[in-house]
Specification:
Blueprint (H helix, E strand, L loop, with lengths): L23 H6 L1 H4 L11 H31 L3 H20 L9 H8 L11 H9 L15 H11 L4 H11 L6 H4 L11 H14 L6 H34 L11 H8 L5 H5 L5
Length: 286
């Protein structure tokens, strides 16, 4: 879509500039709404950068949740091409999300402190859309619904997501329907609980990767294609968490985080966790 405008006097190629109401572009994109959502609470000009960057991150969370939900629904129908396409798109979006750290990655403590008080008790871990991302990755926690009790719609959406299978749950059910020996205890687990790695799931992935070299194609290649798509997602999530950790460490050191979190210590713990864990450990057995 072009944002360039030719001179109306240049001839028949000039675009229509006269509309009765708002422009069709505005009607579709809602740009006027987006560009008037910023309400800085300090006089520091850097707060505007922080606010817009955070809002951009929320939009990326939204589209990534959409992609992963699309992939999960496709896997439920054993429609692997649609699932792989959604996972692939999400890797482009995750790279754009991760690049969003750049405006904040070089803040000095003094620069961050100049508007930090405007956040009050606000903190990124309170993001409902990011929580939905985490739930789709299998990192469930009922306690993370508590901050949203005052927003019924948001709370209901999160509670629904808590009790739905994660993207990884759908992956394992898909593999089981294709004849992979995923243990029954994993397939029937309480999906409202955080996913825990299982040695037999690790063996499923290890065996699929080991057989890949011996097979001309077919089922084994498809399983590995899915595994590699998920690994790419997992790596980019890991990079997101590490970029968050480094940006926070640079801006505030080891101080207590906004919202009463442990700050860097909490982020270090998060960054140490692998998404889709057996896909990583299985590689040691191939």
């Amino acid at each position: 879509m072009s944002h360039d405008v030719e001179d109306p006097a240049a001839g028949s190629q000039a675009p229509n500039l006269d509309f009765k109401g708002t422009t069709p572009y505005e009607d579709y994109v809602q740009a006027d709404v987006l560009t008037h959502l910023q309400h800085p609470l300090s006089e520091d000009p850097g707060e505007m950068v922080f606010l817009v960057t955070t809002q951009v991150m929320e939009l990326w969370f939204t589209v990534i949740v959409h992609e992963w939900e699309t992939a999960a629904k496709a896997l439920r129908k054993d429609d692997l091409p649609v699932a792989l396409a959604a996972l692939k798109r999400s890797t482009y979006e995750l790279r754009s999300l991760n690049a969003s750290w750049e405006p904040l990655a070089h803040l000095t403590p003094a620069q961050f402190n100049s508007y930090r008080s405007a956040l009050g008790e606000g903190s990124g871990f309170q993001s409902a859309m990011y929580r939905r991302m985490e739930f789709l990755l299998g990192e469930k926690s009922a306690s993370m619904l508590v901050p949203h009790r005052g927003a019924p719609r948001v709370h209901d959406e999160l509670e629904k997501a808590l009790h739905e299978p994660s993207l990884y749950d759908e992956v394992l059910h898909h593999l089981a329907r294709r004849g992979e020996p995923v243990p029954q205890e994993v397939l029937t687990r309480d999906v409202s609980q955080a996913y825990r790695p299982h040695p037999e799931v690790e063996a499923v992935w290890a065996d699929a990767y080991a057989r890949e070299a011996d097979e001309a194609g077919g089922e084994e290649k498809e399983t590995v294609r899915l595994g590699e798509a998920l690994t790419e997602v997992a790596e980019l999530v890991w990079r997101w968490r590490n970029d968050h950790l480094v940006a926070t460490r640079r801006a505030m050191g080891s101080k207590v985080g906004t919202g009463g979190s442990a700050g860097v210590a909490w982020l270090e713990k998060r960054a140490a966790k692998n998404v889709f864990p057996e896909l990583w450990t299985a590689r040691s057995h191939v």
